[in-house]
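Here is one chain, start to finish.
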Amino acid sequence: MNKEIRNYQGSLAVENRNVIGYAIVFDSESVDMGFIETISRSAITQEQIDNSDIFAFYNHNDEEVLARSVNGVGSLKLTVDEVGVKYEFEAPKTQRGDELLEHIKRGELFGSSFGFSLPIDGSGERWEKRDGKYHRTITKIERLYEI
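Its structure:
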């Protein structure tokens, strides 16, 4: 499986040491990446998330763990709602955790990203060309690795 990483430039909030945001936003067009991408509301389920091992990494660096959810339990809370996949975690009381909070409070970090893979048989995506641009719709996320 090929792991892909996507960014979402949206609101990121801090309450005390709790970091709250959306890793995935459904039915919203991405910026132009050479193609436009939309993630379908049915692409991932709460059950799927609750049966996964998902990390919150700082800048996708697996040596910079901020939080983790193993089978729906742990320091990382992930919830599928009408908007997308929402996350919440308490920033660790570490240098990296403190830096993360400071960057968010100063407005230097304001988005989130996620690492995922699609089914290897190609069934998790649909491509079409509209108005001269390629559009990709993600219909099934096989695995969510990280936020």
